Every structure is written in structure tokens, then in C-alpha cells.
Amino acid sequence: MPEPTTTPANGSKIAVRCTGVTKTFGSGTNAMQALRGVDMDVRIGELLMLVGPSGCGKTTLISVIAGVLRRDGGECTVFENDYQKMSELQTTRFRGKNIGFVFQAFNLIPTLNAEENAAAPLIINGTKRRDAVAKAREVLQQVGFDERMMRSFSTDLSGGQQQRVAIARALVHNPRLIVCDEPTSALDGETGHKVMELMRNLALGTDRALIVVTHDSRIYEFADRIAHMEDGRITSIEESPRTTS
């Protein structure tokens, strides 16, 4: 089986394309349909925010897009690659190079300090540890970490500091798609704005895209488009006030 591609063919301007995507958890009387036929495109070079009530399927959708969960039906491609046409090894390699994921629960490794946690994607991808840590320190500085904080273990960091490490980890390997689940939930307004400015500056470009799941209306201004989700479906997608002003 050929290796998945990392660049879109034929001049495509679409980073992610979901068509009729479904996902059900459980079976029989215990079945819960989280995604009920999602149709959504994410354009290369944009920041798309995904909003909607808790339990509407937002986290499930981005987990399918990031290759963390397998869909049950429909189609989903990321830079024209379909995880379900890849082997497990190919999926792991593709995600390791192309996807950055900020988990809502942070998922930091407690036995590693902040700079080691942030460097993990680079080390997994084969970068020498010294170079990986040096790059991680650069990104951590951009999210406001000083020398002492970089050497602190996650258990010694506040929730907001842990969140910034998680964001640095998602950005450090320069992925083409950044997927974030509530990236500002543990941050005050000023820090949240600084983090979103950083993410726009670092993550967006002619060949990148960013998806942000959020309940934080304070950061809507950073979006190019806002997709509204309810009961497992995308109900509407609108241009953000920033792009229409």
C-alpha cells in the first residue's frame, strides 16, 4: 500500500472534507448516535471554530478528523487522505507529521517536565532529543513560560499553565492541521487572547488550517468562519464578524 500523501493534489483548497459522517457509541438499546451525517469543509489557510451545546458531537467530530476515532459511515478526508484507507502504521505516521491536537484534558505525561512534554511529538518523529527540547523551549517561551516553569512537572503547574504546555506540544512539530478542544477554557481573558494570537500566527498559512472547538465567545473574533453544531449535525456555517467587518 502506498504511503499517504501530505500535500493536496490538483491545487485543492480544502484541508478537511466531511460528507455524511456518522459515529455511534454502544449498540442495541444502549446505542448513542453522536454524529448523524456531518457535512463540513475546512479550507486551507483558515481558522474554523466549531460551536454548539455540550453533548452535540463536537469532540467526537474533531476526534474523527484527527484520526483518534474511526467513523462508522460517510467520508472524511484530511489533505485528501482517508484514515480508513490507511494501515494503522500509516495512520500513525500521517498523524505524527500532519496533526496537532490540543486535548481538553491536556493529556500531559506526569513523569516529564513541561519542555519534555512539549518536545514529545518531535522526539516521536525521530528528532534528536536535544534539538526537540530546544524547539519546545522556543514555543513555550511564546506562550509565556520562563526557565523555572519549563522545568516544572505537570503536577506542579496550574490548569492554565498545563493548557499552555498542551498548546505548545500541538504546535511544536509544525503540523498542517491543528485541532483544539476548548484551548482557552482554563485561561483568563488576556492570556486566552494572547494564545489565540499565537496560534493564528504560528498555525495558519497558505498550507495549514486550524479547527477550534469552543464555548468561549470571547475568542470568536479570531475565527474566519464559525460552524454551528446541534444533535450530531452541522446546522449552519457563517463568516465571522472579523471577516465581514
Helix-strand topology string:
EEEHEHEHHHHEHEEEH
Helix content: 25-40%
Instruction: Kindly state the number of beta strands.
Output: 9
The DSSP helix count reads 8
| Physical arrangement of strands within the biggest beta sheet | 5-6-7-3-8-9
The parts where pLDDT drops under 50 for at least 5 residues are: none
Mean pLDDT: 89
- Which class best fits the helix and strand makeup? alpha/beta
CATH class category label of one domain: Alpha Beta
Q: Proportion of β residues?
A: 25-35%
Largest sheet: 6 strands, mixed
The CATH architecture name of one domain reads 3-Layer(aba) Sandwich
Oligomer: single chain
Based on Cα principal axes, name the global outline.
globular
**Could you state the CATH homologous superfamily of one domain?**
P-loop containing nucleotide triphosphate hydrolases
CATH level-3 fold name of one domain: Rossmann fold
